[in-house]
Amino acid sequence: MRTCCLTESLTPVLELFYAATQLPITTFTHAEGHPCPHCQGTASPGSCLYKEGEIETPEGNLYILPICPRCKRLGMFVIGPYTSKPSVNSQLSYRPQGVWDHLTSLLRNLQTKYSGSQVCGSHCLPVARARRIVEDEYDQEITLEGVASRLGLNHTYLSTLFKEETGRAFTNFVQEVRVEKSKELLIQTRLPVLEVALSVGFSSQNYYSQIFKKLTGCTPSEFRKQSMIVPA
Questions:
Q1: Cα separation of 199 and 12, whole Å?
Q2: Among candidates 51, 57, 20, which has minimal Cα distance to 36?
């Protein structure tokens, strides 16, 4: 089976969809250099078959559906071949045209449950997964290259996609998450500022204080003092 990025998370989705429908399903993406399954990347953008909807090919009909509704550049599900003509003597599975709303809903439900991210959330699938990694592992070493590798994406592609979806760079998001987590420690514990910095993933107290002041307008120590002031 030829698959695009996010293979690991989509494998159970593809397997369960096939088990439920007996329709062949695979994935393709231009983002990682895979060509359209029929024009082989040689057609002009206007004539390329790599777009949403039902298409006819000599081998049978195909239904093309974006992996992520919000980010159609991520890649496409390719379902089929099948036939929409019940009278045809064919080895292909018969599927009437009106059934695709139901089959699309089934596929999206499987994605939501088994791909590890909401497919119709506030961000597209890879960005949602990248955010989750940062929010879960902020206290560990996190790099754009490392996260992109885990998602099966080119790091430049993920960087561009993350900026487009969130309005900020990946590195800035990591810093914001770490600073927000550090605020909880500053307020709720008496840990030295150095230990707070190391606990949320910063490599040094100076760098932590620099980023903290850049994002909040005050140093960690000043923030801690302010948080201890109880209004009269």
A1: 35
A2: 51
Cα-to-chain-centroid distance, residue 67: 10
* 161's tokens: 């996609």
8 A C-beta contact, residue 4 and residue 34: yes
What band does 50 get if pLDDT is binned at 50, 70 and 90?
Answer: low
What fold characterizes domain 125-170? Arc Repressor Mutant, subunit A (1.10.10)
CATH 3.40.190.290 applies to domain 171-227: no
Residue-wise pLDDT for 188-223, tens only, equals 999 999 999 999 999 999 999 999 999 999 999 999
DSSP 3-state of 18: helix
Average pLDDT for 77-97: 82
Check residues 232 and 192 and name the one with the higher pLDDT. Answer: 192
Residue 4 phi, psi dihedral angles, 5° rounding: -95, -160
Nearest to 83 by CA among 101, 65, 59, 102: 59
